[in-house]
Amino acid sequence: MPRRAAPHRGIDVHYGDIAEEDERPSKSALKRQSHDLQSLGLEVAELSEARLAATEMPEPLREAILEYRRTKSHEGRRRQLQYVGKLMRSADEAVLREAVSAAKLGSAKETLALHEAERWRAELIANDEALNRWMQDHPDTDSQQLRSLVRQARRDATGLAPEARQPKSHRELFQFLKPLLSAP
Q: In which domain, by residue range, is 34 found?
């Protein structure tokens, strides 16, 4: 008489049960998912007060994130972040990821706008052709004020050593250009 295999760990295994076991995520996959949710929770906790308030999330999660922000000790923050990760399982992950992405994208756009203003300032101080191009691209600019700021910045730039701090006129020109470039 053929021997029947002993049941595995006290459970009778049938071929139909094996497929069901394979569908469950592994312990490693569950751990990765938990760490990903904790990372997302940390990114959400680093949002500004206004963005955090505007983000839709369950109230217990919001309270846990605010508690994480108030916690000072390393171990306390670590444990609170684990709790935030646990609460993240019940939250809409897509909404939270969108809020984090919007914050990062907004920051990147602001940085690009600042670089663009710096580039225009340098060009305007360097030559008159840049002033003509600016006026063609931005016809609603107060040309008299812009010319005055450029003239003053050029005067101040001629008397400085290359490593010297930029004078007030450079900052004023930059502050004049910045809102004009960020306007739609």
A: 16-91
